[in-house]
Amino acid sequence: MSYIKRQGLRIGAFVLLLAVYLSDSILLELATKYANKNAALTDKYVGAMLIMAASVLVLYTWLYHRQLKQYNPRHFGHQAFNWHRITQLLLAFILMLAVQIAWSQLITHHLLPMPSNQSALDGEIQQLPLWNTVYGVLFAPVFEEYLFRGLFFNFFFSKNSLWSNLIGVFVSGLIFGYLHTMAFSVTTLFYASLGWVLAGTYLYFKDIRYSITLHFLNNLWAVV
């Protein structure tokens, strides 16, 4: 199989996996839409979202570990949590907080606009607080780390080389930022910078649980 055809199939597979995740998010949006209008319909959408979320988790986990069994030159796996690694993870979290604090200061001083998707998210949490919070804090970090870090690197930047790592981190963060804004803007850079920290964390610790934990802490901080 030619390189172009192989990459085309990988891109198609990645887009399909992304569509699956976005479809689950749409179910939550529909549940939120009817939260104050039709309780029965809201419950049905929430139930469908939970069933699909479980299916997405099984699919992502199976595919990710299947890919690592086939080709894993970076030796990704489970690295034991210890105080040294926990301290390093906390430093990465502080870095993410520093990015957010700096960005919020620029917004406060009217140098940058408020991210439109953040305003929309705040509104959704007010309409359906429990499930939007649960999804944003618990579900999204797992799905997005498997998709934008684990599966992304397995598909496109699996070689263990300096250039593969650097370009992979850059592109991973850029896609992550774009999909949070759905348009290239200065706000895309903000989300991309968070994506770069998460991608760097994944490659540094060689264990996707660390970037998931970091993503969880970041999202929890945002809603506390």
Automatic annotation (TrEMBL):
InterPro entries: CAAX_protease, Rce1/LyrA-like_dom
GO molecular function, one term: metallopeptidase activity
Regions crossing the membrane: 12-32, 44-65, 86-108, 128-148, 160-179, 185-205
Record keywords: Hydrolase, Membrane, Metalloprotease, Protease, Transmembrane, Transmembrane helix
Signal peptide feature range: none
Pfam families named among the record's database cross-references: Rce1-like
Domain CAAX prenyl protease 2/Lysostaphin resistance protein A-like residue range list: 128-220
Source species, domain of life: Bacteria
Protein family: Belongs to the UPF0177 family.
Protein name per UniProt: CPBP family intramembrane metalloprotease
Annotated source species: Secundilactobacillus angelensis
